[in-house]
Amino acid sequence: MKTISRQIVKKNMKNKLLFRKMIENRGRIFLLTFTLCFLITNGQSGPDFNSIADKAFQKLYQNPDECISYTQGFLVSDQDIEDKIVLQNIISQAFAMKGDYMQSVNSFSQKENPDRNQDLSYFMQIFGDYNLADQYQNLGLYNQSKKIITHLLSDQKLLKSNDPKLRITAAKLYQLQALNLGINRDYSNALKNLNKSDQYITNDNEDNKIIKTENKIFRSSYLMKQNKLTDYKKLIENVISELEKEKKHPFLLSLAYENLSRFYFLQQDYKTSVQKLELGLLLIEELPFNNIKIKIYESLSRSYFALHDDIKYHQYNKYYNDLRSKTDSNTKEGIRYIVKLVETNQNKTLEFEKQNYLKSFWTSTLILSAIVIGLLIYFLVINNKNKDLKKQFDFFERQNNQQKQIIQPVTALTKSIDTERNSNKISKEKEEEILQKLEEFEQSGRYLNKNMSLAMLSAQMEINTKYLSEVINNNKEKNFNGYINKLRINHIAQLLKTDPTFLNYKVSYLAEYSGFSSHSAFTTVFKSVTGMSPNAYIQEISKSKV
Amino acid sequence: MMKLRLKIFPLIFVSFIFINGQNTSYTTLFKKAKLEIYDNPDKTIQIGKQLLKNENDLKKTIDIYMLLSTANVAKRNFEESLMYILKAKELSQKTNDIKSQVSVLVSVAIQYQQMELFSKSLETLNEADQYLAKLPEKTTEKHIETATIYAIKGMIYKSQSNSEIALEKFLISIENFEKVLVKKTTYSNMSVVYYNIGYCYLNLNLIDKAQQAFLQSIDCAQRNNAKSLEAFALKGMSEVYKQKHENKTAIHLLAQAESLSKNTGDIILNEGIYNEMANNYLAMRQQDLYQLYNKKYFEMRFKRKQNELSSINQVIDNHNKETSVKSQKLKSQYHYMKILSFIAAGIFIPLLLYFILKIRKQNKKFQKNIQQIIRTS
User: Are B283 and A306 a contacting pair at CB < 8 A?
Assistant: First the structure.
């Protein structure tokens, strides 16, 4: 009995072991992926990449062409998606500064091909959306830009993050939103957004410093629009003197000069206005900052017009118109491109979402079906055990009854004879005679003879083999072999129960003793009769003896 | 600035071609589709495709194809637009009506011009020229189509800053328009062509000739009582005076143009007027008035740009909406699938647990009984 349960326990143990192995393997995979992720994120935010990106960003404000070739070099060698997105954004911004919006959208779109199987990190999602908002703004689709940013800035996770990358992205988002608001002439809210942008800025790197200076310039221009001229002048002069000292940000300085020129223009001091514009133009004349050049040309042509300098007016007006028509057609191309891009991207996102849902659906279904299958297996196991137990119970009950029968065998015999059917060709007398002889045979223990067979028994009993076989089949519910085997097993089981010395014998000896040719045959037959193996039986008996 | 002017002209011709509807339900739907063309091009395309399904008439099918093409230009989906243009062109070849063949080719050329595919446009116009040669001489249609073709050619050259060649084409166009026995729309078209001629002369610095051209433009516009065209011409004239540094006269003309354009609400026109106003006040050193009109000019410019982008905005919004609907659908679909699998599990698991517990109980009972039997015996 105990062995059975032990075996089951063992089986369970085995299962558990297998399971644990699986978990261990899984754990190992988890660990691997975890470390990999860690390495990636670590490598990403490592000092190397950060300084590269910072340098690239600085170059963006120094010379877009240089920035593009510098950044593209790293883009080819860098395999990390997060790095790639950041670098692509810088390249895309560089093209936008050149007024080449078509290329800007194009390089923005290239980053949209990361392996979708890899989960996009939170930063990548935010940064991707920021990129899109930036593109929309470049192309004059302010409402779309605004929508995206409003959505992003309502996310508390972003606003409360301590990750420097996310913080600078938040600063950039507030700046973009300020620009969107400024275009709609909502200057007070634009200023509020610039203030918020400043809150996210540290002085850690060039990226932060540049955004901070840009914020100051934008702020000053909104102050001018609000007619707060003293505040304006103080701020812009402060910015200009800082930039003049550093001398490494031609773009920002020329932007500031252009800004200041507007102030003098407003004051009708057209000469100073022109002077500031010329200063600004001088800084970037050789550089491909077409977006600011347009502004300067426009302002210059206007100022010269006010000064009645027809030659210079026509000259700059022509420059302005040429550049304008160039960027306008470029913008149109960019818009054409981005509409397509949005379409394909959204289809991709849908596909991605679908895969995600499918994945989660299958995992949950698999887990559930694993539970169901597990339970089903357990059910089958215990159902089998139930069958065995039933057999054992029947056997022991029969054995118990037999013991009682031995005390009064005759009555039982006569009873059994009475119930015999009489459908065979053998006469009743003959059959009774045979049964009588079989009864004797059962008592004799001759069945323990290894060579006992139907022929031998019939010879011993002097009865026709056919008759004997038929009587056994009809009355013992078994063929001859089953009959003999049952007798042998019953005998040995009885012996084991009554004679404690037998408990010490080996199973092979018991097999030999009870007339079986092999150990395994004995075990099988024993189990089929009693419902348990000989060992389990022995254990059960010895346990009850104690 | 040049592009804005370009747009007026095609619009007049396009409407000229399109207003030929007969069948009522078709006409109303077609008109509705046309109205939506810049505000909601997706809608136009939807209606257009729907109309296309039930349409057997060749001419109408061509019209629908042209409409679909224009709607796709509004969406800046040039590939689709080109596809429809080519279909329209193909179909027009099947008709034996040379007049309609020419008019389709002309509208195809206009479409190309809008897409800024200038060489394609010129190519198509030359093709139209060949068909035109087959028409009998001295008919009104021939004159009108010839004038139109040359006008478009002129605009293309002008947009490429090729004022001399543009002027040549425009003059041929005017010549042909003159031959048309008086017809109202012809005056409008002539006014537009004269207006363009004026700007060509301005670009070539031939101020007196420019003045002449603008005068003609004003005259033609007045004959057809086309107020906005007159305002355009006046604005052109004001530029002549601005060049002559006669800012006061220029401002006077612009004020006239402004009052004429009040009812039309043409953003492009207003933008031009305000810009010129601002410029002239700046030249006169009247900073306050300059600021006022400059602000108005910027407002108009911003409005126009946003208007131009409104169809794109609409397209993007539609995309976003569609995607979110699809994603919602996807979400609920998988949600239901998940729920279903949980329900199935919720049925099977308790059922199995019930049987397991039952059998375990039975097993325990058996074990107990067996042990009892062994012990008692």
Answer: yes
Q: Which letter does DSSP use for residue A21 in this model? A: H
DSSP character at residue B1: -
Nearest to A144 among B313, B337, B348 (CB): B313
**pLDDT for the residue numbered B355:** 93
**CB–CB of A329/B159 below 8 Å?**
no
- The predicted model scores a pTM of 0.70
Tell if the CB–CB gap between A1 and B366 is shorter than 8 Å: no
Decide: B274 and B293 in contact? Cβ < 8 Å: yes
CB contact under 8 A, A1 and B352: no
- Per-window interface: B 258-287 vs A, CB < 8 A: 279, 282-283, 285, 287
* Interatomic CA distance for residues A420 and A426, integer angstroms: 12
Q: In the structure, what pLDDT confidence band is assigned to residue B273 with cuts at 50, 70 and 90?
A: very high
Structure tokens at A475: 């009355």
Nearest CA in chain B to A342: B316
CB-defined contacts A:B, below 8 A: 140
Q: What is the pLDDT of residues B39-62, one digit of tens each?
A: 778 888 888 888 888 877 888 888
Helix (H) or strand (E) holding B2: helix B2-18
Reading the block at residue A464, the tokens are 């026709």
Give A373-437 as a 3 state SS string. HHHHHHHHHHHHHHHHHHHHHHHHHHHHHHHHHHHCHHHHHHHHHHHCCCCCCCCHHHHHHHHHH
Tell me whether residues A342 and B316 touch, CB distance under 8 A: yes
Residue of B nearest to A353 (CA): B327
DSSP H/E element including B334? helix B287-376
Instruction: Compute the distance between CA of residue B248 and CA of residue B281 in angstroms, rounded to an integer.
Output: 9
Q: Could you tell me the two tokens for A363?
A: 């995992």
Asked whether the beta carbons of residue B367 and residue A332 sit closer than 8 angstroms, the reply is no
Distance from C-alpha of A190 to C-alpha of A77, rounded to nearest angstrom: 40
- By CB atoms closer than 10 A (0-12, 13-18, 19+), residue A175 is buried
Low-confidence ranges of chain A (pLDDT < 70): 1-47, 111-120, 402-426, 545-546
Closest by CA to A67, choosing from A104, A40, A112, is A104
Distance between B153 CA and the closest CA of chain A, angstroms: 20
pLDDT of residue B14: 43
Instruction: Give me the residue from A325, A378, A396 closest to B373, CB to CB.
Output: A396
Q: How far is A471 from chain B (nearest CA, A)?
A: 32
CB distance from B336 to chain A under 8 Å?
A: no
pLDDT digit string, tens, across residues B202-224? 989 899 999 999 999 999 989 88
Q: Which two tokens stand for residue B57?
A: 């008439």
pLDDT at A286: 86
Task: Name residue B64's amino acid.
Answer: I
ipTM: 0.73
**Partner residue opposite A368 with nearest CB, options B341, B352, B369:** B341
Q: What is the pLDDT of residues A384-422, one digit of tens each?
A: 889 888 888 888 887 777 666 655 444 444 444 444 444
**Half-sphere exposure of residue A118: CA atoms within 13 angstroms, side-chain side:** 16
Mean pLDDT, chain B, rounded, equals 84
Range ranked top by mean pLDDT from B24-28, B34-38, B339-343: B339-343
Check CB contact under 8 Å for A544 and B374.
yes
CB A75 within 8 A of CB A84: yes
Q: What is the pLDDT of residue B256?
A: 92
Q: Which of B186, B176, B210 is nearest to B196 (CA)?
A: B210
Tens digit of each residue's pLDDT (9 = 90 or more) over A353-371: 888 888 889 999 999 999 9
Q: Are A379 and B369 within 8 A, CB to CB?
A: no
